[in-house]
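Structure ticket #2291
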Amino acid sequence: QRQPVESGGGLVQAGGSLRLSCLASTSIFSITAMGWYRQAPGKQRELVASVTSGGSTNYADSVKGRFTISRDNAKKMVYLQMNTLKPEDTAVYYCNANPVGPFFSWGQGTQVTVSS
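Resolution: structure written out below.
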């Protein structure tokens, strides 16, 4: 299994923005639907945004209109632009295939902390 490498998290005030990046180095990246997931303390991991191999996107209701997922197949990268951040967006963010399957293990994630 390959392990994605997430980056770009940090501490930001409410209303601010962050851009997360994920390198998912696999030969099948271009045909793999990808997603950004997050896990807040004491909560289950949830899917917040997904993008198909063709570029179609889908978002959880909680982030719709604020987050934008994109991908660069040539670079094997997935991005998550997060705007108008809220304290409830605080979590560790991970990328992985969607649905999660045998191609990737979970990476270390990147911590996003939004202060009020």
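Closing remark: The beta strands are 5-7, 10-13, 18-23, 34-39, 46-51, 57-59, 67-72, 77-82, 91-97, 110-115.
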